[in-house]
Design goal:
The structure is a single chain. It is built from 18 helices and 23 strands. A 9-stranded mixed beta sheet has the order 1-2-3-5-7-9-11-13-15. It has a 6-stranded mixed beta sheet with strand order 16-20-21-19-18-17, with helices on both faces. Strands 8-10-12-14 form a 4-stranded parallel beta sheet, with no helix packed on it. It has 3 domains: 19-237, Leucine-rich repeat, LRR (right-handed beta-alpha superhelix), CATH 3.80.10.10; 394-482, Phosphorylase Kinase, domain 1, CATH 3.30.200.20; 489-702, Transferase(Phosphotransferase) domain 1 (Transferase(Phosphotransferase), domain 1, Orthogonal Bundle). By secondary structure, the chain is α/β, with parallel strands linked by helices. It is globular. Helices cover 28% and strands 13% of the residues. The structure holds 2-acetamido-2-deoxy-beta-D-glucopyranose. Residues 97-98, 119-120, 141, 143-144, 163, 165, 187, 189 line the site of 2-acetamido-2-deoxy-beta-D-glucopyranose. Residues 408-676 form the Protein kinase domain. InterPro entries: Kinase-like_dom_sf, Leu-rich_rpt, LRR_dom_sf, LRR_N_plant-typ, PRK1-6/SRF4-like, Prot_kinase_dom, Ser-Thr/Tyr_kinase_cat_dom. Residues 1-19 form the signal peptide. It comes from Erythranthe guttata (Yellow monkey flower). One of its GO terms (biological process) is signal transduction.
């Protein structure tokens, strides 16, 4: 009887849970939908609310209440994928191929995906490192995009991958050494890229099909691959017999494919990050349930059935110990992270993934050699948790800094902000830096300070001011940053004397784009996102080439009195409720763009009333070309392309909208500015004398995306 009751209950629960989608999955699809510009082709999808599983949203497959597949290829989609897909923990198939998506592939992707198809879009820039952590991956197709640079993904964990298609992109450099770990690979398509170096890392892989056509490979096709289907035209490969391998190379026959033979320290992992732990908790719950009542058993069984159906994880992966979180692998950044080497499972478990994923720089520094640091033979290098994360900046003493700043002399004072003064300093190695002396009222204790230092020290982006070191002793708290010769944008725009050259239009666009990238990095690459909260022209420092560097990241938490945060830049919702979000940063960014366009300060009490608030005065006129030409900074003396100006104004109008939800994410702002620059470059000859008498007339080439 009990069994019948349990089954009845189970059916009841199943049909109940089947009717509504997991709220996280549903809201993540809402975000995806709006990020794709809410296209009609995605029938039944909604920008908010709705029930993807029950309402049969186009391309969505569910299992129980969880979304397991997203198949939306070839629908002419544009926009971007949003930055939350990592929340879709049950998605095993994600296919958005053959659409018109562009820009960088987001870092946030479904973590347990088995089939990932992003082919046939316009993705550019590099690969997100997060792919390295997709231990469940079997099929990866990124072909026919414009992905550039070195393959910056570590394949050490991807031992279940059978198909890899990177063809028709702009990949460069040698194949990564970690390809050696692809112990299940059958099909590899690398054709039509600009890969260089030899094919040697492929020698021992269980390949059946390999296409390397139209690259710049050199050397020989490894003799071990002779029996398989290899297409290799259009390279610089030698056709003669390969020379004998140097001593110490592996045997000349390929091993029988064995998924576990890649046991290079890091190869054991599972595809079910996080869910493993909750599973064991449920196991215990089940035991208790048997004791307590049939009802509980029913619920547990139902839960298990739903979970099983939703997680079609591969048997290999299951066997390899289901409860480990994603184990991060040694990477080119591992050198930056002082970590304890250990290979024990216990410490891998203790490792907290976000600390490692956190603040990983976007794939800009392609020049860094991956090979140098290829650690595929070394054990996993875990990193401690966030709150105890080692600080990768140099520790200075107060005495050091006293010498460097001439006892914090007034002559060396270069700025004063809400949390402290900034001094120019010369370290004993001759290097000039900026030392920020934090007011004692701003820091309550050293632990808080060190946590902030740790967070700042993990920010690495060409447009974010780099932390050089810090000092915390005798109740003093100081931050040492790289020094930027040209001071802040605020000074440059508003305080310049008659002799200093005004910024040209191109430089203004370059500054806008660089700072947009800095914010994009903080918002969308860093995980969790960093909200700047105090974005203003005084926090944008300019180097000798007038490249922007965003300063004071993470420091807003030290500002006690919200009034100290520059009010002319605050979004309306911040002014009203003190609610900071990434969208309030976007607003502040729009205000800075307005400053760049008009040369005015956000609030100017010297002007007549209607013109005091820059946003209020300027925004109604942003779409009117004639009005724009009157608003534009007189210091430009009319030297600007009108089209570029009006596109710039369009971006501003989006950013300073009063409703936060309508403001674009920074990645879209970056995209819009990149397009603006590209068009300006294309039509450069038509306004060729722009900047002719200027120091920075070569700018246009400099800010290529
Ligand atoms: C990858 O996607 C492209 C574009 O849809 C397709 O032509 C190609 O066959 C796919 N590659 C594999 C290996 O499935």
């Amino acid at each position: 009887m009990a069994v019948v009751a349990a089954v009845a209950l189970l059916i009841g629960i199943l049909s109940f849970t089947g009717a509504d989608t997991d709220p996280t999955d549903a809201s993540t699809l809402n975000v995806l939908y709006t990020s794709l510009n809410s296209p009609q082709q995605l029938t039944n999808w909604k920008p908010s609310g709705g029930d993807p599983c029950a309402e049969s949203w186009k391309g969505i497959t569910c299992s129980g209440s969880k979304v397991t597949e997203i198949n939306i290829p070839g629908l002419g989609l544009n926009g971007n994928m949003g930055f939350q897909l990592d929340k879709l923990t049950s998605v095993t198939t994600f296919d958005i191929s053959n659409n018109n998506l562009g820009n960088q592939i987001p870092y946030q992707l479904p973590p347990n995906v088995e089939r990932l198809n992003l082919a046939g879009n316009g993705f550019n820039a590099g690969l997100p490192y997060s792919i390295s952590l997709m231990g469940a991956l079997k099929y990866l197709n990124l072909s026919h995009n414009q992905i550039q640079g070195q393959v910056t993904v570590q394949f050490t964990s991807l031992t279940g991958l059978t198909t890899l298609d990177f063809s028709f992109n702009s990949f460069t450099d040698n194949l990564p050494q970690s390809f050696q770990s692809l112990t299940s690979i059958n099909d590899m398509y690398l054709q039509n890229n600009q890969f260089t170096g030899t094919l040697d890392v492929l020698a021992l892989l269980p390949l059946q099909n390999l296409n390397v056509e139209n690259n710049r490979f050199t050397g020989w096709i490894p003799s071990q691959l002779k029996g398989i289907n290899v297409q290799s035209n259009g390279n610089l490969l030698n056709s003669g017999p390969a020379p004998p391998p140097p001593p110490g190379t592996p045997p000349a026959t390929r091993p029988v494919p064995n998924p576990k033979s890649g046991g290079k320290g890091g190869s054991s992992n599972n595809g079910g990050s996080g869910s493993g732990d909750s599973k064991s908790g449920i196991g215990a719950g089940a035991i208790a349930g048997i004791v307590i009542s049939v009802l509980v058993i029913g619920a547990i069984i139902a839960f298990f059935v739903i979970r099983k159906r939703s997680r079609k994880s591969s048997p290999d992966v299951e066997k390899l110990g289901g409860s480990q979180p994603f184990a991060p692998l040694p990477s080119q950044e591992s050198q930056d992270i002082k970590a304890v080497q250990t290979s024990s499972t216990a410490s891998i478990k203790a490792f907290e993934t976000p600390a490692m994923l956190n603040l990983r720089p976007p794939p800009f520094d392609r020049h860094k050699s991956f090979d140098e640091n290829d650690d595929s033979a070394k054990p996993i290098v875990p990193v401690k948790k966030v709150n105890t994360a080692p600080i990768n900046s140099k520790l200075y003493t107060v005495a050091d800094l006293q010498i460097a700043t001439d006892s914090f002399s007034v002559e060396n004072l270069i700025g004063e902000g809400s949390i402290g003064r900034v001094y120019r300093a010369q370290l004993d190695d001759g290097k000039v830096v900026a030392v920020k002396k934090i007011n004692s009222s701003a820091v309550s204790n050293s632990e808080d300070f060190l946590e902030i230092v740790s967070e700042i020290s993990r920010l690495h982006h060409p447009n974010v001011t780099e932390l050089v070191g810090y000092c915390s002793e005798h109740g003093q708290h100081l931050l040492i940053y790289e020094f930027h010769k040209n001071g802040s944008l605020n000074e440059f725009l508003h305080v310049s004397d008659e002799f200093s050259k005004p910024l040209t239009w191109n430089t203004r666009v370059k500054i806008a784009l660089g700072t947009a990238r800095a914010l994009e990095y903080l918002h969308e690459v860093c995980s969790p996102s960093v909200i700047h909260k105090n974005f203003k022209s005084a926090n944008i420092l300019l180097d000798i080439e007038l490249n922007p560097h965003l300063s004071d990241c993470v420091l807003a938490s030290l500002v006690r009195d919200p009034d100290q945060v520059a009010s002319g830049y605050s979004a309306p919702e911040v002014a009203m409720s003190g609610q900071y979000t990434i969208k309030s940063d976007v607003y502040s960014f729009g205000v800075v763009m307005l400053e760049l366009l008009t040369g005015r300060t956000p609030f100017d009490s010297a002007r007549q009333r209607s013109e005091q608030s820059l946003v209020r005065w300027a925004t109604p006129q942003l779409h009117d070309i004639d009005a724009l030409s009157k608003m534009v900074d007189p210091a430009l003396k009319g030297l600007y392309p009108v089209k570029s100006l009006s596109r710039f104004a369009d971006v501003i109008a989006l950013c300073v909208q009063p409703e936060p939800e309508f403001r674009p994410p920074m990645s879209e702002v970056v995209q819009a500015l990149v397009r603006l620059v590209q068009r300006a470059n294309m039509s450069k000859r038509t306004f060729g004398n722009e900047g002719a008498a200027r120091s920075d007339s070569a700018d246009a080439e400099e800010y290529t995306p």
